[in-house]
Design goal:
The complex is a heterodimer. By secondary structure, chain A is an all-alpha fold. Chain A is built from eleven helices and two strands, in the order ααααααααβααβα. The two termini of chain A are 42 Å apart. In chain B, the strands form three sheets. Chain B has a 26-stranded antiparallel beta barrel. Classes of the chains: A mainly alpha, B mainly beta.
Chain lengths: 305, 671
């Protein structure tokens, strides 16, 4: 879990947007927030290219009877008057707002409360006081966090280790824009471990790897319990996203009489004198026990068929 | 109510009812054949490729809108996304995408029919050892498959409270994958067919009220494998009469059906509860393959107890959550969750047949493993003074298992975290956690067969202490420049494991910088390192340990991204550069004369340069150069030719490497 910093100073007495709405709605706002005030990351025009800025939509802030800018930013009359303390008289929805993240999020949730946010109130992102606008951009045509190719960079701002994982030689194709974090995780909270979209890790994996689901006649216990016992979910320098190489990995659990856990060293490599290469190179243990995910063959008890 | 009748929004730059289409067309070129580079990029073949894509939008004044987007149509990462939406009434989406997953192009095999259900051998087989491999019998083979996905969804807004949706998805995987088949002490790496289809559907309905919401859903997933087996000819001279052919079972068809319900209720403004429950059922009943391909052996094998598994597993997943804010600064969370995997498949006695050669004198029963997991969490966050947030929590994770070495494990965790806005420009946080896991007794399980080394402790069942720590700092150096620093540490101590994994440690640290230089240039820089180490003990006598091994991975990553806008925004220039290296070592200590394994390494250098120039308002030219070089060494593959190991007919793959340049140029035109 990542920790967000505590919020800035509590609101002072002057920090209040007042209760009066502006006289002309967005026309009032755009007198100042025009093209001259645009920055590389913010334009007022951007919102008119996405769902929030549609006047034909009754659910849009700019739809019929909508409160336009003030639907989200709150009553703006005081903010629009001369000599007002600009940042303290409007809900900017930005990180430096005097509103708490919960207060800022309440604005969004007044329309966007639905089942995908059922567990928001009990999950790490809410507890870390993330605001919706920490991840989402509203004044753009396409919110980067909603696009598969650009979403991970938003997540990596806090989840820094994961950026390394997806650079590793064996990883899910996030680096290539073919998968996004949200293919497996629900950033709005799901009530599961690691905020997965499915109830368990294995059910999440099965949504793309259904061939591993079974049930099978001869099962390998850790496979049915938890894929992460052998695989890393994000990436590994070992083939097949394994936590260790096959021989070492297998020998952390298997040391039976009759098929002893012989120490395999560099002597076992082809051309050296130790012998036993078949246990080490290529697939290692899986050169024979190829059905490591389980087998439905009646003679597959040892995962050989 | 606010009177908005005069809010005409005359200065608002609304988009007019319109249709727009942008097409992209061009050419690219790749300098080298490489399945490794083509893995997930689709650029696996040397030579030119077509760049084709585009997007379109339509919107009218009555709230109807539609859009489509197509990308990479000329290569195997092509994707199409089309949507329509009537505001406030319905939305629908259709998608198609492909993901190429290429494993290898450096292997060779003497088997004929690679990628089919039956692998035959040319003249000259069987052989005593791979040294006798007939000359000229190896044929190169590419290994990999492509995943094609078609998905669609539709949602209806009944009124302001109701939402109903249907999602369907079909995934098709087509190609080959690596597998292996053995006879006694000989083995062959094989190429198996992949021809699988998974269909999924989710139907849901949700109701949202002011203080509560509820949703119900059905999820179904049907997996179908068009290839149920792989039969291969034994390339080695069989030591048992008739063992000339083997057969591997490929993944059987299976199904999963699940009913889900979730809800939230605001008991008080300060007290919110939510819950999820899901009941599921997994089934699999594909007909068994013959127990052996050895006709000479078949008469001595008792009949199977069933012709198929009739496998069935019931699943339950439930969680209940409470969040309470008794005062503004304090928040308390509590979570209880239960997951069950109840394998109701009959356990029957099956004859023991090993590699089509040997028939056991006893039978062996299948073990339908079941699990129950209960998780309890409680934690509190306190904000105060305003610059400091303190959190503490305790978790417990109890797991019950059947048919395994220990019946129950219980893990308790306590943790704490502080996050402070030390200065306006500096925030820091520290998280510490300590967990202890114990099991209910190890080694008393009589059902584990064959009996395991009594000193072995499997790491998911073993007693364990886990300590983790994380520190991070975020610095706003000046307007537009932010710097992040992080360090994460984790250490596992398997305190009572004499054989098996004994300890593990990971360290991860890094820094990143994000800067806006002026209004036109953005720079991102990151560097990170990770160190993973673990120790294990083994026993070649199935008793006390007589060897020890240390696994370690070191990964270093550095990356730079620059984006610059020039000529009043007409020209966009960018660069993405990254360098990733890893070193993996396995050191086995079984005596003074044992040589170590060579270090396995990977090096990835990637440089992407790109530019987009807007020629006129509706036309732009985009181009780029991508250089990527990958080098790796891995003793598991390097030098392991088909003849290198006498009793292993390997594919002879090399550790992957490539040095590829890609250039591309395309025109985007809007009309």
């Amino acid at each position: 879990e990542e920790a967000a910093p505590a919020t800035a100073a509590a609101p002072t007495a002057i920090a209040s947007p007042g209760t009066e709405y502006s006289k002309k709605g967005a026309d009032t706002c755009l007198e100042c927030h025009d093209a001259d005030s645009d920055t590389a990351n913010f334009t007022t025009a951007g919102i008119f290219k996405n769902k929030h800025g549609q006047r034909g939509d009754a659910h849009s802030p700019f739809g019929p009877k909508g409160l336009q800018c003030e639907a989200c930013h709150g009553p703006g009359d005081r903010h629009s008057t001369q000599k007002s303390k600009k940042i303290q008289t409007i809900n900017s929805l930005k990180a430096n707002s005097f509103y708490t993240p919960a207060e800022r999020n309440a604005v969004c949730l007044s329309c966007h409360q639905n089942r995908s946010r059922n567990a928001w109130h009990a999950e790490a992102h809410d507890r870390s006081q993330l605001a919706c606008t920490d991840c989402h951009k509203l004044h753009v045509e396409k919110d980067p966090v909603l696009a598969k190719k650009t979403e991970p960079d938003v997540c990596f701002r806090c989840h820094k280790s994961e950026r390394i994982d997806f650079q590793k030689a064996s990883s899910h194709p996030v680096r290539f824009g073919l998968m996004a974090c949200s293919d497996c995780h629900n950033a709005h909270g799901s009530g599961t471990q690691a905020m997965l979209k499915k109830p368990t890790l294995n059910q999440t994996c099965y949504s793309c790897h259904a061939e591993k689901r079974g049930p099978l006649l001869w099962e390998h216990a850790p496979v049915t319990e938890d894929c992460a016992l052998c695989h890393t979910s994000h990436g590994s320098v070992r083939p097949a996203m394994l936590t260790k190489s096959t021989t070492s990995l297998c020998q952390t659990c298997h040391s039976v009489a009759g098929h002893p856990a012989v120490p395999r060293t560099g002597a076992a490599l082809p051309g050296n004198s130790g012998g036993g290469s078949i246990f080490v190179v290529a697939g290692g243990c899986t050169n024979c026990h190829a059905q490591v995910h389980g087998s439905n063959h009646p003679a597959g008890a040892k995962l050989l068929r | 109510a606010v009177d908005t009748s005069q809010w005409t929004c005359e200065s608002c730059p609304f988009e007019k009812a319109s249709a727009s289409t942008t097409v992209e067309a061009g050419l690219g070129s790749v300098t080298e054949d490489s399945k490794t580079f083509g893995n997930y990029t689709g650029l696996d073949q040397q030579g030119p490729y077509v760049i084709a894509g585009g997007e379109g939008r339509y919107r009218n004044d009555s709230g109807f809108s539609g859009s489509f987007q197509a990308s990479d149509l000329g290569i195997d990462t092509r994707a199409i996304d089309a949507r329509v939406r009537q505001k406030g009434r319905y939305s629908a989406r259709f998608g198609y995408s492909e993901i190429p997953h290429y494993t290898s192009d450096s292997g060779a095999t003497p088997f004929l029919g690679a990628g089919s259900e039956v692998l035959r051998l040319p003249a000259g087989f069987p052989i005593a050892t791979t040294a006798d491999l007939p000359a000229g019998s190896l044929n190169t083979v590419d290994i990999g498959f492509k995943r094609s996905r078609i998905d669609a969804e539709a949602a209806w807004l009944g009124d302001e409270h109701w939402t109903t949706s249907v999602k369907v998805r079909r995934d098709v995987r087509d190609g080959t994958q690596r597998i292996a088949g053995s006879f006694y002490n000989t083995s062959s790496q094989l190429v198996a067919p992949v021809d699988q289809t998974t269909d999924q559907i989710e139907v849901s309905a949700g109701y949202v009220a002011q203080k509560w919401q509820l949703s119900l859903a059905y999820h179904g997933s049907l997996f179908r494998n068009n290839e149920d087996s792989l039969t291969w000819a034994n390339p080695f001279t069989p030591v048992v009469t008739g063992a000339t052919t083997g057969q591997l079972a490929l993944a059987p068809d299976n199904q999963f059906h699940q009913l889900l319900a979730s809800g939230t209720y605001e008991i008080l403004p300060q007290l919110r509860a939510s819950a999820d429950v899901a009941f599921g059922r997994m089934t699999q009943d594909s007909s068994y393959l013959p127990v052996t391909q050895n006709a000479a052996l078949a008469p001595s094998i008792p009949a199977l107890p069933a012709s198929s598994l009739n496998g069935k597993v019931g699943t339950f997943n439930g969680s209940f959550r409470l969040a309470y804010n008794p005062i503004t600064q304090l928040r308390i969370n509590a979570v209880y969750a239960r997951d069950e995997h109840d394998n109701q498949t009959d356990s029957l006695a099956y004859p023991m047949v090993a590699t089509d050669m040997f028939v056991g004198t006893t039978t062996r029963s299948n073990q339908p493993f079941s699990y129950k997991q209960d998780r309890y969490k409680i934690n509190a966050d306190y904000l105060g003074p305003s610059w400091l947030k303190t959190s503490i929590g305790a978790d417990e994770d109890d797991r019950m298992r059947t048919l395994q070495d220990t019946v129950k494990t219980r893990e308790g965790t306590v943790w704490g975290r502080v996050a402070a806005q030390v200065q306006e420009y500096l925030s820091v946080s520290l998280r510490l956690a300590h967990a202890e896991r114990t099991n209910s007794g190890y080694g008393s399980a009589t059902w584990v067969s064959p009996a395991e080394n009594p000193y072995m402790r499997k790491y998911n069942l073993a007693d364990r202490w886990r300590d983790t720590a994380g520190v991070r700092a975020d610095i706003t150096a000046m307007e537009g420049i932010t710097i992040g620093l992080h360090y994460d540490y984790s250490e596992d101590d398997y305190r009572n494991s004499q054989v098996g994994l004994t300890d593990a440690r990971s360290d991860s640290y890094g820094a990143d910088l994000s800067a806006a230089i002026g209004e036109h240039t953005q720079v991102q820089l990151f560097a990170a390192s990770e160190r993973l180490r673990s120790n294990q003990a083994g026993s070649s006598t199935a008793t006390l340990p007589n060897w020890w091994a240390r696994n370690s991975d070191e990964i270093d990553v550095i990356g730079l991204g620059i984006k610059h806008f020039a000529m009043d925004g007409k020209l966009e220039l960018g660069a993405d550069v990254s360098h990733t290296t890893s070193r993996s070592d396995v050191v086995v200590n079984a005596g003074p004369s044992d040589p170590p394994f060579p270090t396995a390494t990977t090096n990835l250098d990637s440089v992407k340069l790109y530019a987009t120039y807007r020629v006129q308002s509706n036309m732009s030219i985009t181009g780029g150069v991508w250089h990527e070089e990958y080098r790796s060494r891995d003793w598991r593959y390097d030098g392991v030719t088909a003849t290198a190991v006498p009793n292993l007919l390997a594919l002879g793959e090399e550790a992957p490497h490539y040095n590829v340049n890609v250039v591309r140029m395309a025109v985007r035109y809007s009309f």
